[in-house]
Amino acid sequence: MTNKKAYKGNVIYSKDKDTLIVYDNSYVIVQDGRIVDILKDLQPDFPNENVINYEGKLIIPGFCDMHVHAPQFLQMGIGMDKELLDWLDTYTYPNEAKFKNIEHANEVYSQFVNELLRHGTLHVNCFPSIHYEASSILFKLLENKGVYAFTGKLNMDQNSPDFYIEDTNKSIEDTEKFIIEHKKSKNVTASIVPRFAITCSEELLNGLGNVSLKYNAPVHSHMCEAVNEMKICKELFPNYKNGAEIFNQNNLLGKTPTIMAHCIFMDDDVLELMKNPNCMAVHCPDATSNVNAGGIMPVKKLLDLGINLAIGSDVGGGTSLSIPRMIATTIQHSKIRNMFDNQYEAVNLQEAFFMATRSGGRYFNKVGAFDKGYHFNALIIDDFNMYGDNYSSLERLERFCYSGDDRNIIKRYIDGNEIEIKI
Ligand code: GUN
Ligand code: FE
User: Fold this and answer.
1) Which domains does the chain have, with CATH numbers?
2) For residues 277 and 408, what is the distance between their CA atoms, to the nearest angstrom?
3) Local structure of 245: helix, strand or coil
4) pLDDT for the residue 2
5) Which ligand 1 atom lies nearest to the CA of residue 317?
6) Is residue 209 within 6 Å of ligand 1 at its C-beta?
7) 287-301, pLDDT tens digit by residue?
8) Is 324 helix (H, G, I), strand (E, B) or coil?
9) Whose CA is nearest to atom 9 of ligand 1?
10) Nearest-angstrom CA–CA distance, 123 and 140
């Protein structure tokens, strides 16, 4: 009796940024949670009971949301007429401060993790709150569901309201403690999360950089996001050439896996730093058109430069946890950008899907695609309710991204195990 399983359907995944591979009516062979092969025909002796038949449906990799604020799940769609810094002061800090209450954190984060999975996000890079206990709850909830994740404890020690600010040394100490106490998880890795340069003192950034180096911990922050933020950054850190150097010179950029959200306004020096293979820029198209007004990331330019690029929902700056929806928005925004600056072409479905799957998954060890040896972290897409014509599998994928929703995701697998969600 083999422990191999064969999942039958129309299989699609990214080979590289320009290529989506399609195996229509084929079998993904999975053993011990990993992909062994993709076959057009099964061996005649393959046991029937090990065939899982999704004939006619799409089998695609689970999505990667590489920048999402877990506590802001409660404030999606609020204050969308505000500029970033006003929005943070008015809505975000008061909301995040409530996660001091661990019952509240448990309730909201349980729902948040369920909603991520419901939308097909199986790999995630979370932004937490400053609270140790709440952040630990989030870590454990992700771990219990098997989600591939980076998550940590947020740091901020200046330019923050009295009710939501940390002591510098305590912030560094708690971060080190968090990393030590949350080290051994299988799929979840503890990360270092300075909010952004302007809410962190140089002393804090330096201390966090040392912790990151000591434990090889990934770093997650925001950079080059908004016109006002960059202006304040220059005033606060006059000795640094740009916003990226503040991270770079404090060992928070590129020494360990480094994920920087937004990266809209990057000059040549910053682009050069971000070419480091340890770095990843995260495009958050929805947030860009909500609270972060001022520009749109030149996605095509970054792709052409070979900078690692992923997609994030940036909830609550973004208003949906759906990464397929963010794929469509990425393409739409790149077209709008192209109308005003035709230096860079718009991106296409291949490129945006790549960012949301294989590219986003690069830090999680063989996820986001269906190469041999990759984890079977997959979604089954049933588009019967929108199946209007004899469309190809690629056309159906495009249609799912633009017009589908979580109801079209009928199954989710992580490491070959079906993941149950609450509807
Ligand atoms: N920059 C610093 N904090 C935040 C946040 O919570 N959301 C967004 N979009 N940008 C930020
Ligand atoms: Fe953000």
Assistant:
1) 4-62+368-418 (2.30.40.10), 63-359 (3.20.20.140)
2) 35
3) helix
4) 67
5) 9
6) no
7) 999 986 688 999 999
8) helix
9) 317
10) 15
